[in-house]
Amino acid sequence: MSIRISAEYVKELRNKTGAGMMDCKKALQANEGNMELAIEALRKKGLALADKKSSRIVTEGMIESYIHAGSRIGVLVEINCETDFVARRSEFQRLAKDVAMQIAACPSVQYISVDDIDNIFIDNETRIEAGKEDLIDKPQSIREKIVAGRVEKRLKEISLMNQPFIKNTNISVEELLKQHIALLGENIKIRRFEKFLLGEGLKKKQYNFVADIQNVMEQS
């Protein structure tokens, strides 16, 4: 016999996971009301459903913007889904806003996923790590493992999908995306983004007050 789960408890789980009410109720009943186990069960279910939908073509979606820090940082991000119906859903639009905010909060992020990083960058990072002094006296096999681990860590640092979600650091951006795929029933992909930093790339003018004063004196 299944245990009785209150509507408030089901709603609490839904707020934490974004899953449907019936899925939340079933997960709580299956795990005897244990919230953490129910969250884990829903997460696994969401990841499985997301993997099944990952090959579907996505041509709809939206371009979201986010401006932060007194208009000094701006982000544009394109997120795609399968239908215009899902693109208009508040959950999808909130996801787009959260992803844009995430990008603004992660200064080291340069790529969407590790798979997008070009081999030239990877080879250069490998060469840098392999040449570090703390590895010189280590055996070749150990050195290769350490280098591989450091390079993998570096690649994840600059990949958006590997970042802890700023509103819930227990999940990654990739898991956040998969949760919404399970919630909305469509494949969702972050296609591209651009970050703008005020004054980036510009040579700021340096004022020489002494020279300015001398010029004024010469002209007077």
From TrEMBL:
Keywords: Cytoplasm, Elongation factor, Mitochondrion, Plastid, Protein biosynthesis
Top-level taxonomic group: Eukaryota
Pfam families registered for this protein in UniProt: EF_TS
One BP annotation, GO: mitochondrial translational elongation
Residues annotated as domain Translation elongation factor EFTs/EF1B dimerisation: 55-200
Subcellular location: Cytoplasm; Mitochondrion
Function summary: Associates with the EF-Tu.GDP complex and induces the exchange of GDP to GTP. It remains bound to the aminoacyl-tRNA.EF-Tu.GTP complex up to the GTP hydrolysis stage on the ribosome.
Family to which this protein belongs: Belongs to the EF-Ts family.
Name of the protein described by the UniProt record: Elongation factor Ts, mitochondrial
Source organism of this protein record: Eucheuma denticulatum
Lineage: Eukaryota, Rhodophyta, Florideophyceae, Rhodymeniophycidae, Gigartinales
